[in-house]
Amino acid sequence: MKEVLNNLREQHQKILMMLDRPEQVEELIHFVEEVHHPLEEIELFPFMKDKPCLSQGGPRCSLYMGMRLELDPLTRVRGHLADFYRKTSFRPPHYPLPEWLTAQNPLSIPYEEHVVGAELAKSLLFLSKPENSTLRAELFEKFYDDYCRLLRMHIDKEDNCLFIICERALA
Ligand SMILES: [Fe+2]
């Protein structure tokens, strides 16, 4: 698992270098949604799901919880997506969640960010189609900005909170 964790940290660096380059959006989405998040969900999260240290929290966890309560970035993004779904027939595919995931499990936080990120990613791919160029001119920049911000926040939280807890579990 140590190797997986190191790999995930390296992948975070790769993702950070790909942000704010809208011309690379498809490459970014492929790497995040098809490579990075599946590795976390298939390897790391099931390994960590029942570890007692997960509920004890890690460094900066209370800071992130405070930010989540005060700034509530996901609700703002969900509002953008709801407006988009009202305007179009587009709906994102269902995001599969594991049976073990409950609202009380601390991993519901990164999972929720994966779900919202995937909705943004699918919406961006929809907007990138040539037949949707009018909507693209209106919405692409906002959704791309939402996606980059969400990934930056998500990676910062994982690097400085969740992955530190994982390292403790592996020590
Ligand atoms: Fe990650």
**Helix content bin:** over 70%
**What global shape is seen?**
globular
What is the SS-derived class?
mainly alpha
Total strands: the figure is 0
Tally of helical runs: 7
The helix/strand series, from N terminus to C terminus, equals: HHHHHHH
Distance between the termini: 11 Å
- Radius of gyration computed on alpha carbons: 16 Å
Task: Quickly count the domains.
Answer: 1
Bound molecules: fe (ii) ion
Low-confidence stretches are: none
Mean pLDDT equals 91
The biggest sheet amounts to: none
Strand content: under 5%
How does this model look, in words?
The chain has 171 residues and is mainly alpha-helical. It has one domain (2-170). 76% of the residues lie in helices and 0% in strands. It contains seven helices and no strands. It has helices at 2-18, 25-48, 52-56, 61-71, 73-87, 108-127, 133-170. Helix 2 (25-48) packs antiparallel against helix 6 and helix 6 packs antiparallel against helix 7 (133-170). The model has no long low-confidence stretch (mean pLDDT 91). Fe (ii) ion is lined by residues 8, 12, 36, 40, 155, 158.
